Amino acid sequence: MIEQWLLDLLVCPKCKGELTHETEPEALVCPRCRLRYEVRENIPVLLIDEAKPLA
Asked: How far apart are CA 38 and CA 45, in angstroms?
């Protein structure tokens, strides 16, 4: 689980907007860009090329 202080600092790499944290499966979501960034071993993968579009 990502610590809250880190979640407060992270922004979407594409639009610099706020990210929301989902727990199952763990991911960070940008509602503005409609992208989901995977979290692997408690490390957010904030690469635009690896983001998945929301369904």
From this structure: 6
Answer whether 42's CB lies under 8 Å from 31's CB.
Answer: no
The full 3-state SS of 1-55, as one line of letters, equals: CCCHHHHHHCECCCCCCECEEEECCEEEEECCCCEEEEEECCEECCCHHHCEECC
What are the distances in angstroms from CA 11 to CA 24, 31, 46, 53? 20, 11, 9, 17
Here the tokens at position 44 are 């957010």
In this predicted structure, what is the pLDDT of residue 55?
Answer: 85
Residue 29 CB neighbours (<10 A): 19
pLDDT tens-place string over residues 36-48: 999 999 999 999 9
